[in-house]
Design brief:
- It comes from Parahaliea maris.
- GO terms for molecular function: oxidoreductase activity.
- This is FAD-dependent oxidoreductase.
- This protein has about 500 residues and is α/β, with parallel strands linked by helices.
- The chain folds into 3 domains: about 10-65 and about 180-290 and about 430-495, FAD/NAD(P)-binding domain; about 70-175, no CATH class; about 295-420, Alpha-Beta Complex (Flavocytochrome C3, Chain A, domain 1).
- It has helices at about 30-45, 60-65, 75-80, 90-100, 105-125, 160, 180-190, 245-250, 270-275, 320-330, 360-370, 375-385, 415-420, 480-495, and strands at about 10, 20-30, 50, 70, 145-150, 170, 195-200, 200-210, 215-220, 225-235, 260, 280-285, 290, 305, 335-340, 355-360, 410-415, 430-435, 440, 445-450, 455-460.
- The strands form 5 sheets. Strands 1, 2, 3, 7, 8, 9, 10, 20 and 21 form a 9-stranded mixed beta sheet that branches. A 4-stranded antiparallel beta sheet has the order 14-15-17-16, with helices on one face.
- α1 (about 30-45) links the parallel β2 (about 20-30) and β3 (about 50).
- α1 (about 30-45) runs parallel beside α7, α4 crosses α5 (about 105-125) and α5 packs across α14 (about 480-495).
- It is elongated and about 80 Å long.
- Residues about 420-430 have low confidence and may be disordered.
- Bound molecules: flavin-adenine dinucleotide.
Length: about 500
């Protein structure tokens, strides 16, 4: 794959002798964010042209389950129909806790206020959502329910600041095809709205006028450069940069050594690089989603996760992204699950994780385990003492997942990051990663320069930006597609309304 863009990434408008296309709005990248931006701009009456490097639209959004993290406003229509209430304050409180100091308060507020209506919008596109919830601990329901918990809502410390409510909204279809269902529906609406799409066309450079506004682009199509004039502006929706080794080495040097890139092959950061060249600011570039899908089966949650010192380091009922983040903070990225026979099963997602020690007593397991002498016995004895009372003073694992490890035999399973990488099963094992950093934008999608001033005519959304999800350890599934489509729509509305 050629990751290099030309040297002259920003070209003067005057350098173009003839335009191959003229449009009001140029959208670059036809995944979730791009489709949402194109649709809103076209519905607002703008002439819209979309460029897509691949042979068809979809991007990582089509590969995804299309879980969208939605709630607030008393509850989405789906939450309400399944008996859940969710105030905007409750959702915002959860998001603030999840994103911590990296979170953007204005964006959180904007999203929490609009997320329930965003669900209505997604459904209005023709995406099917069944009024049914799947409430077991899982990654994605393989049956046809549409609502599930996709974050840390029920676990510490989140259950102390916000009432737990399921917010993962996933298109209804048996299997895991939500992303394709969503993209098929929205691409049909984009085409009905009159937007033109040029596939097999790679954005190469941006055009800037004498006043400093972005006013078009140069792209490569059928092996030649084409020039496009965009009178109202350009929206960058080219996705993240997880497939660009140079960038992941630069911005995520540690994670890059053990995590497996997860995304579309065109996630090489073209929009981010061009936005930077236009004077844009990038933020949050050192943050990534990581995945440790230990469960399902949910009963593995009764076990205890241990690092190479034989110490617990997290409440095991945390969400898979948080499990991954904390696990990868452990020395050597080595981590183990100690589980008793009645709760043991192979993880659905992490195949071939090796059992490294077994025993009818904890001492027998300890004799085979790679921990300092006496440590496993001490850790388990302390855990058992409190688990018997439904307590976990160290990490506050919820009482529903607490029981003493007292029914032998026991097994110690190794899930070290490098082991996972070595045994990766395509599309299933971890730790997988995608990037959470990119161009800094306003909630309208306007790209900001290093002085936080908007660059006229330049907009962005989705993983080309630092959007709503900014932290791997607080990530909830659905935050990325939810963010990309929600703020993609806002960028489309804003660019269409730009006065020229
Ligand atoms: C298997 C999988 C499952 C996932 N499941 C979920 C989930 O359920 N919920 C969730 O929130 N997140 C999920 N994610 C993450 C999520 O899918 C992405 O982060 C999100 O869809 C990104 O949307 P986007 O519009 O920014 O980018 P994309 O959907 O990737 O769209 C970007 C588009 O831009 C195109 N492009 C790139 N460069 C150029 C260029 N120079 N010129 C023209 N076109 C270009 C690409 O080909 C692509 O079509 C998942 C990711 C994967 C890989």
């Amino acid at each position: 794959m050629n990751a290099n863009l030309p040297v002259d990434k920003i070209r003067p408008l005057q350098s173009v002798a003839r335009f191959d296309y003229e449009t009001d709005v140029l959208v670059c990248g036809y995944g979730g964010a791009g489709a949402a931006a194109a649709l809103e701009a076209a519905l607002a009456g703008a002439q819209v042209l979309v460029l897509e490097r691949a042979s068809a639209g979809g991007g990582a959004t089509a590969m995804s389950s299309c879980e969208m993290y939605l709630g607030g406003s008393g509850g989405t229509a789906l939450q309400k129909a399944t008996g859940f209430e969710d105030s905007t304050e409750n959702m915002a409180a959860y998001l603030r806790e999840a994103l911590g100091p990296l979170g953007d308060d204005e964006r959180i507020r904007c999203y929490a206020e609009g997320a329930a209506a965003h669900f209505d919008w997604a459904e209005s596109l023709g995406v099917p959502y069944k009024r049914a919830a799947f409430l077991e601990r899982t990654v994605v329901p393989l049956t046809d329910e549409s609502l599930l918990f996709t974050g840390n809502e029920k676990s510490h410390p989140f259950n102390r600041v916000a009432a737990p409510v399921p917010r993962g909204h996933v298109p209804s279809r048996e299997g895991d095809e939500g992303g394709q269902l969503f993209m098929n529906a929205i691409m049909a609406r984009v085409s009905e709205a009159g937007a033109e799409v040029l596939a097999d066309t790679r954005l190469l450079a941006l055009l800037r006028d004498e006043q400093g506004a972005i006013c078009g682009a140069v792209a490569k199509r059928e092996n030649r450069e084409i020039c496009i004039r965009a009178h109202r502006g350009v929206v960058l929706t080219t996705g993240g940069f997880v497939m660009n080794q140079e960038m992941t080495r630069q911005y995520l040097p540690e994670i890059n050594q053990y995590a497996v890139p997860y995304g579309s092959s065109n996630d090489i950061g073209d929009g981010i690089v061009l936005g930077l060249a236009a004077g844009g600011q990038v933020i949050n570039m050192d943050q990534a989603f990581l995945s440790f899908p230990l469960y399902p089966p949910a009963k593995l949650t009764y076990g205890v996760l241990l690092n190479a010192r034989g110490e617990r380091y997290i409440n095991e009922d945390a969400y898979l992204a948080r499990l991954a983040w904390y696990s990868c903070q452990q020395p050597g990225q080595k981590f183990y699950l100690l589980v008793q026979e009645e709760d043991y099963a192979a993880s659905d997602y992490l195949e071939r994780a090796p059992v490294v020690a077994t025993g009818d007593t904890i001492a027998e397991v300890a004799a085979e385990a790679p921990f300092p002498a006496g440590k496993l016995e001490q850790t388990v004895s302390y855990f058992n003492q409190y688990a018997a009372q439904g307590e976990d003073p160290l990490f506050h694992k919820a009482a529903e997942w607490l029981k003493p490890l007292s029914k032998p035999p026991y097994a110690l399973v190794e899930y070290s990051a490098n082991e996972m990488r070595a045994v990766i099963v395509p599309g299933s094992a971890g730790p997988l990663m995608f990037t959470l950093g990119g161009l800094k934008t306003r909630t309208t999608g306007e790209v900001l320069d290093v002085s936080d001033r908007p660059i006229p005519g330049l907009y962005a959304a989705g993983r080309a930006t630092a959007g709503l999800p900014r932290s791997g350890k607080g990530y909830a599934s659905g935050m990325s597609v939810g963010d990309a489509t929600f703020f993609g729509r806002r960028a489309g509305q804003a660019v269409a309304a730009r006065s020229i």
